[in-house]
């Protein structure tokens, strides 16, 4: 059987690919385990500065395997919930990864595939990519955080329309809605995402992790709670070697070399 997730390095960028192209990269139970494990490995690797998530072949991810989902009718509600929590554990692993995760979307991101793309920190899409909350077409309701993520970028009315019709929208439309960071020509989403990721991978690793956490909590926290979190992270940052390097580089009129700090940490651990 093929590995559910293919992993390869591109410099300081870890590329993770859904590897089920015969089924348009539909999700399986193996995927739910393999992707969090791959993200954890990248998280612990000091040589990795950013992660790109994509799909093998012409499709990012078609969502859940309908053959598997149909079998859940015979399960008890608790058994069905267990399967859904496996998906949700994978979504949380993407969201909680301390390193930037960029989705590179070609073809379709449908159902849970859309949820996965939106769970990433940033999204690069081909102009003609197709995004759809397709659950209603097969009599299902959304999971994987689709409604939570979309509600952060579209009005309630448009969210309801997308979910009730299952109508696909293009990468260009998703960018207009604010959900896509960068557009690429068809076939070039991965290359565009890699360029984006390389820039991020050269940045200060621990500061980026703190910034990611602040951005994730900003929509949930009250202003006071967010101020407290900002203060906590700024206290940590001010005492960090990354800040010393960045400030010294600024006054020295030179580019900051944050990669050297990561490599130094690797050498010390060896």
Provide a descriptive summary of the structure in words.
The chain has 270 residues and is α/β, with parallel strands linked by helices. The chain folds into two domains: 5-201, 2-enoyl-CoA Hydratase, Chain A, domain 1 (Alpha-Beta Complex), CATH 3.90.226; 205-269, Orthogonal Bundle (Lyase 2-enoyl-coa Hydratase, Chain  A, domain 2), CATH 1.10.12.10. It contains twelve helices and nine strands. The strands form two sheets. The chain has a six-stranded mixed sheet with strand order 1-2-3-4-6-9, with helices on both faces. α3 packs parallel to α4 and α9 packs antiparallel against α10. The longest helix has 20 residues, at 77-96. 37% of the residues are buried.
Fold blueprint:
Blueprint (H helix, E strand, L loop, with lengths): L4 E6 L2 E6 L10 H16 L5 E6 L10 H6 L5 H20 L4 E5 L2 E3 L1 H8 L2 E5 L3 E3 L13 H6 L4 H10 L3 E2 H7 L4 E3 L4 H13 L3 H14 L4 H16 L2 H11 L6 H12 L1
Parallel strand pairs: 2-3, 3-4, 4-6, 5-7, 6-9
Antiparallel strand pairs: 1-2, 7-8
Helix pairs in contact: 1-3, 3-4, 9-10
Keywords, please?
270 residues, alpha/beta, 2-enoyl-CoA Hydratase, Chain A, domain 1, Lyase 2-enoyl-coa Hydratase, Chain  A, domain 2, three-stranded mixed beta sheet
């Amino acid at each position: 059987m093929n590995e559910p997730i293919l992993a390869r390095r591109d410099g300081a960028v870890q590329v993770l690919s859904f590897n089920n192209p015969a089924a348009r990269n539909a999700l399986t139970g193996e995927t739910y385990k393999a992707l969090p494990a791959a993200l954890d490995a990248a998280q612990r690797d000091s040589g990795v500065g950013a992660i790109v998530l994509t799909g093998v072949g012409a499709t990012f991810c078609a969502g859940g395997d309908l053959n598997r989902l149909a079998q859940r009718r015979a399960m008890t509600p608790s058994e069905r919930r267990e399967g859904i929590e496996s998906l949700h554990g994978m979504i949380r692993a993407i969201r909680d990864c301390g390193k930037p995760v960029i989705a590179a979307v070609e073809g379709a991101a449908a159902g849970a595939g859309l949820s996965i793309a939106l769970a990433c920190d940033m999204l690069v899409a081909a102009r003609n990519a197709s995004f759809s909350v397709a659950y209603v077409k097969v009599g299902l309701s959304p999971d994987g955080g689709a409604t939570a993520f979309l509600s952060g970028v579209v009005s309630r009315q448009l969210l309801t329309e997308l979910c009730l019709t299952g109508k696909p929208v293009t990468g260009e439309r998703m960018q207009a809605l604010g959900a896509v960071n960068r557009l690429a020509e068809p076939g070039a989403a991965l290359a565009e995402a890699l360029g984006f990721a390389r820039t991020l991978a050269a940045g200060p690793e621990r500061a980026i992790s703190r910034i990611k956490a602040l951005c994730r909590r900003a929509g949930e926290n009250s202003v006071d709670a967010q101020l407290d979190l900002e203060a906590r992270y700024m206290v940590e940052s001010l005492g960090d070697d990354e800040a010393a390097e960045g400030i010294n580089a600024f006054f020295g009129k030179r580019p900051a070399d944050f990669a050297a700090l990561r490599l130094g940490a690797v050498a010390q651990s060896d």
